Amino acid sequence: MTGEELDPDARAELRTLPKDLATKVARHLVMAGRLADEEPERAHRHARAARRLASRVGIVREAAGIAAYHAGEWAEALAELRAARRLSSGDDAYLPVMADCERGLGRPERALDLIKSPEARNLDPMGRVELRIVESGVRRDLGQRDAAVVTLQIPELRDRRLRPWSVRLFYAYADALEEAGRRSEAADWFARAAAADRDGETDAAERYAELDGLHIVDTEEADTEEADTGDGAEAVAEAVGAPGTSAVFLEPTAPAVEEEPPPPED
User: Beta strands 214-218 and 248-252: pairing type?
Assistant: First the structure.
């Protein structure tokens, strides 16, 4: 790894640093990005290392904030993203994550202040949808289950084309419906989320099956004996329509001090 794998815009921000230092920081940022989903704690350590080397660079503080967020370090994430906003002339793209950090810290009122702030109007469509998802979660935290559902009833929910936010929006709406006691509607929206989730990033199919009293059996792990899926299972597989549904059967069920990580090796 050379650090050249970093996004070109991010590399451009590092040009204010001496070349050798910029390369070291870039390598830490690449590792933080690669490890974010599977190993958030390691990603967090790499992002912290980059921050120690270049704390006055906006993209570094942003990466540190996002890594802290994925690691569940809400206060640290909030502080880093506030710094990133200052260093990037008030970039508002971080607002949804910042609001979710306030929620994670048990401060729903502060989260709502960010959600309703004038700066929120500057978000792009993706950011606005993410902010609504966070707001729905805040409403649920406050016990406002019906309001959590209504918050997500936005035009993007009925868009006939799949968008980058569709899976998360469908899933959040289904989740809110289930918590509001609207199980039948929730099942329908979990099915839609599963159909849209082509990369299998959510457990929407499992949630759908659970609401419909079905159990997913992975045929790769099942015994070689034949399984009877039944008409109901076939109907579920068709409704979900997710890639790989032919590979599963759906069956009725019974009721310290942290050391800085070394730079990545070439």
Answer: antiparallel
Rounded alpha-carbon distances, angstroms, from residue 196 to 12, 44, 136, 141, 210: 35, 30, 21, 27, 18
Helix (H) or strand (E) holding 119: none
User: Mean pLDDT over residues 99-105, rounded?
Assistant: 97
CATH number at residue 5: 1.25.40
pTM to 2 decimal places: 0.78
Which range of residues forms the domain containing residue 42? 1-89
List pLDDT tens digits, range 232-243: 334 333 444 333
In a domain, 45, yes or no: yes
Tell me phi and psi for residue 248, to 5 degrees. -130, 155
Q: Collapsing DSSP states into helix, strand and coil, what is residue 217? A: strand
Contact between residue 195 and residue 162 where contact means Cβ atoms under 8 Å apart: no
The whole-angstrom separation of Cα 102 and Cα 73 is 11
Q: Is 18 a domain residue?
A: yes
State the total domains in the chain. 1
Distance CA 38, CA 184 (A): 33
Task: Report the alpha-carbon distance of residue 57 to residue 154 in Å, rounded.
Answer: 36
* Residue 140 resides in a domain: no
